[in-house]
Q: What sequence folds into this?
């Protein structure tokens, strides 16, 4: 499913945090969004996911304009996101967390969680999602006892279990060790092409290795979009973000 932003603008008082952003993530593409701290990357993701409404412009998912839809209706339309800071239930185990993500996409929503804990319609897809991210043998461990990297894997499992077509991944490697980042990169490679992915990530080695295209955001403006090779060679991008060496 294709995701398109058209002239998206958002201000907080006198501060313009998104300035006429045009961005297209083609169906099946892994598109990275990079930029210095304070560039507005997470704010842009928040507008796409429905946490903020833009002042002007449009967000189009597939053939549907979703600019003014609340977050839960965007999720129902096929959009899912992970967060820069993990959003998990630490007192439940991993399988419970993923099962809740499965339940959230169902018509019944979150009603009657206690009997749902044994409902195979939730448990089976939850186990499948855990297996896909390499946590098949860790599903019954309480989330609070998982390592940081495992929590990020679990969050990705929850995103995949939502049955979305478009994934917004906000710094999935944040706080990870080199080995944990390597495993997460392998996970992203394993799902690449099966989903439309907009990835926010500060690890440039990961970005340039994984992305089909990259958009560079500086002070709320998209200053360039291109392939990794084009981004590396672009003088303005090197000066604004990558450095001159």
A:
């Amino acid at each position: 499913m294709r995701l398109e932003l058209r002239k998206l603008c958002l201000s907080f008082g006198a501060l313009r945090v998104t300035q006429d952003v045009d961005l297209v993530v083609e169906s099946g593409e892994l598109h990275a969004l990079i930029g210095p701290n304070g560039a507005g990357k997470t704010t842009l993701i928040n507008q796409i996911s429905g946490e903020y409404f833009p002042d002007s412009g449009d967000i189009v998912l597939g053939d549907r304009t979703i600019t003014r839809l609340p977050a839960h209706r965007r999720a129902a339309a096929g959009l899912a996101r992970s967060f820069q800071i993990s959003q998990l239930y630490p007192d439940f185990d991993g399988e419970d967390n993923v099962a809740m993500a499965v339940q959230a996409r169902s018509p019944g929503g979150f009603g009657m969680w206690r009997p749902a804990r044994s409902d195979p319609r939730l448990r089976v897809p939850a186990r499948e999602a855990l297996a896909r991210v390499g946590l098949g043998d860790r599903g019954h461990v309480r989330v609070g006892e998982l390592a940081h990297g495992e929590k990020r894997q679990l969050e990705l499992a929850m995103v995949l279990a939502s049955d979305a077509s478009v994934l917004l991944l906000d710094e999935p490697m944040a706080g990870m060790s080199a080995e944990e980042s390597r495993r997460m990169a392998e996970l992203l490679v394993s799902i690449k092409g099966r989903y439309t992915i907009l990835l926010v990530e500060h690890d440039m080695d990961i970005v340039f290795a994984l992305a089909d295209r990259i958009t560079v955001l500086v002070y709320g403006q998209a200053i360039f979009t291109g392939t990794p090779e084009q981004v590396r060679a672009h003088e303005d991008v090197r000066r604004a973000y990558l450095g001159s060496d």
DSSP finds ten helices and ten strands in the chain.
